Amino acid sequence: MKDLAIIILNYNSFDDTSREVNKLLEQNCPETSIYIVDNDSRDKDKIMNFAIQKKVNYIISEKNGGYAYGNNLAIKQAIADKKKYFLLLNPDIDLDLATIEILYKDLEHKPEIGVIGPRICYRNNSNTIYSDGGLLYPEKGFMGGHTNFNTSHFEVQMPTYNDKIDYVDGSVLMFRKELLDEVGLMNEKFFMYYEESEWCLRIKRKTNWKLSVNTSVSAFNTYSDKGSFYEYYMTRNRFWLCRLYDGNTRFVKKERWRLAKESFKRKDFSLAKAYLKGILDGLYSKI
Fold first, then answer.
1. Element (H, E) at 128
2. Between 228-245 and 269-284, two packed helices, what is the crossing angle to 10 degrees?
3. Which residues have CB under 8 Å from 173's CB, separation 6+?
4. What CA–CA distance (Å, rounded) separates 166 from 105?
5. Contact (Cβ atoms closer than 8 angstroms) between residue 192 and residue 241
6. C-alpha to C-alpha distance for 44 and 36, rounded to whole angstroms
7. CB count, 10 Å around CB of 167?
8. Distance separating alpha carbons of residues 237 and 201, to the nearest angstrom
9. d(CA 203, CA 182)
10. CATH number of the 1-91 domain
11. Residue 65 pairs with which residues in a beta bridge?
């Protein structure tokens, strides 16, 4: 796997990032395969010292440009280093090197697949599925969902490769370089949330590459509470997807306006403002 880049984007997540890197190195992952990007966080000095100590690649960004921006920095560097495959990995994801090797072999041996990921379960409840592949509903303003969300893996029967998906979750996503020649990098304007969704929509609509989830291997994530920051970007970026891909703008406008009014009645003014700003920026800002 010398031509694979494992890219970990850090933003104030040193403990998770260092845990993930240490685990991979303990399982004999090549140091030259690991790229840590710090998105101008409070951790940047610790990240740099850690990366130097562990002899892995690192990039210290001078600004926090979001998920796509940080990952794109590492992808460009990895391409210069002659890498042909790329794994985007969130710091909170827990997975074994053996899982990475299986996904890598999938791309090597299945030339029709452009993007692949594993089944994702919860770190604190490893028998419960978070995602067997991402789903998007344009008729509902690109509301998102996940195949087999919150279902016990004992209760589902799935093919090894689930191709009936709209996107591969960006927390653990592997792809081949040839994709970039056809559709380019992820859109950095999204900043956070829906970047991988928009990119996968581009792939599905403009190329013949398949998206797939290998349900025979698993990675494990951590669920975190969401707040006004999250709701702003989720609101704005759903409108952007609707504008780019003919989604139902009226649906998302009605839904988000209702949520804003409910937040206002609860006197959660920060959340109400996030919804309203997301609606306005989603409808009228330049994409």
1. strand 125-131
2. 20
3. 87, 88, 115, 116, 117, 196
4. 22
5. no
6. 10
7. 26
8. 14
9. 8
10. 3.90.550.10
11. none
Phi-psi group of 109: left, alpha or beta (phi > 0 → left; psi -120 to 50 → alpha; rest → beta): alpha
pTM of the full predicted structure? 0.94
The conformation of residue 209, written as its DSSP 8-state character, comes to P
Instruction: Quick: pLDDT tens for 137-196.
Output: 999 999 999 999 999 999 999 999 999 999 999 999 999 999 999 999 999 999 999 999
Tokens 């998906």, located at residue:
165
Q: Which pair of structure tokens corresponds to residue 50?
A: 């850690």
CA angle 151, 157, 158 (to 5 degrees): 100
pLDDT of 53 over the 80 cut: yes
Alpha carbons 166 and 137: distance in angstroms, whole number: 9
Q: What is the total residue count of the chain? A: 287
Q: What residue type is 210 in one-letter code?
A: K
pLDDT of 21 higher than 90 = yes
Backbone angles phi, psi at 123, to 5 degrees: -65, -35
Question: What tokens were used for 269?
Answer: 């003014």
The encoded tokens of residue 107 equal 């791309």
Domain ranges for the chain, please list them. Answer: 1-91, 97-224, 228-284
| Contact indicator for 240, 139 with CB cutoff of 8 Å | no
Distance CA 54, CA 22 (A): 8
> Which one-letter amino acid corresponds to residue 129?
I
Note the Cα 10 to chain centre separation in Å. Answer: 13
